[in-house]
């Protein structure tokens, strides 16, 4: 944890009046992400698929859940931004006191549930580790999910009767 | 909660040997999603942007965090699949005993952290509610995050010196 990032608040930024986040459900960390970026200041603002190689290592008992992942070129990665404030409702990304945005109009790591999502290119699988490009998170970031890209994935079972026929 | 879905396990499917998920972090529900689908059997397997209208209602104190969201046509929605098993490592989506996939090679709701992601088309904002198309989740699903689509979003602050220059 980084106390400086936790406490950072720029002039005019607004927080929700909560003393602690509600605890409606729990997340388990299922792996860890190794990236070239050891500090927030050196992380890129958005990952690029021609960016540096990063390594996503999955912990047991989840390694077997990677079976078949090498059939995809693009994966969606979810991770926990564990150094983020969770109470910001309005932010001033440039820190210039000029332009403010609601938290949901930004991809800032500061959000009520600090979950980052990235679309990465899968280069190869090495046992319990995925070698990918396209991340922008800190070295050591906890992994919470891996999914096939929704663009490449097609459901493995036929559509269900009545599905998509709801009222519009 | 639906005890039938919780206990469903098909022949040959494998679970992790865990009695309960680790609790590394907590999620707060920040809204609720209204869809036309009251049961799992009627949900489509994947949302479509020409599918039915759904309504995402944000709870206080997060309504103000929607400021500026109407500048985007596409949003990424994260929600908590609260009726899912969390211990499946290998699944048989068709239930036919033939083809098995690791959990991370599927977009199934059964996963260690049951977080669904969808890309939706924003039709309009009505106060605390977003009217969207493209979801596939159950009526009443808890909302955990809203982000601008990474395709439409451009960072609001200039890139940081040294970013993207890590070793490849």
Overview of the structural elements:
The structure is a homodimer of 168-residue chains. Chain A has one helix at residues 3-7, and strands at 14-15, 25-27, 31-34, 53-58, 74-80, 88-91, 101-102, 115-126, 129-133, 141-148. Chain A is 3% helix and 32% strand. Chain A has a domain at 32-148: Beta Barrel (Elongation Factor Tu (Ef-tu), domain 3). In chain A, strand 8 (115-126) and strand 9 form a beta hairpin. Chain A contains one helix and ten strands; from the N terminus they run αββββββββββ. In chain A, the strands form two sheets. A six-stranded antiparallel β-barrel of chain A has the order 3-4-9-8-5-10. The first copy, chain A, is mostly beta strands and 168 residues long. Chain A is globular. Residues 164-168 of chain A have low confidence and may be disordered. The interface between A and B is large, with 85 and 85 residues. Strand 2 of chain A pairs antiparallel with strand 2 (25-27) of chain B, so a sheet runs across the interface.
